[in-house]
Amino acid sequence: MTNKERIEFLYKEDGIRNATFLDTLLHDDFILEWDSSEGKLLLQKSAIINLANELKQNYIDSFMEISHFIEQENQIVVKYNHKVTTIENPKEFVLIAKIVAIWEFEEGKIKKGYQISKPN
């Protein structure tokens, strides 16, 4: 699987809520710098896997509406809207965040991530 295919699976196949997939995708020394509504966060691999499990428990379905996908050498940039369905309303996707992420790969795994999100 190429780096592009890995990121496409992450976003297009709901890999963001798949802890097993994330465990294979993220480097053991992975770090994410995330500018979020809570401020600047530094998250390691275990925190991302925990977040995936929370997303899986809290939402019925998840959908990434990708508007930009740029690949250059070992980096991929993705701009997307994250939409989910809730337990109360499983048939309607609701926008929960607008996100731009930059992923840096090393040896077929994501080693670093930079993300900016804006809640809806």
TrEMBL record:
InterPro entries: NTF2-like_dom_sf, SnoaL-like. Gene3D superfamilies: 3.10.450.50. It holds the Pfam family SnoaL_2. Residues 18-111 form the SnoaL-like domain. This is Nuclear transport factor 2 family protein. It comes from Flavobacterium lacisediminis.
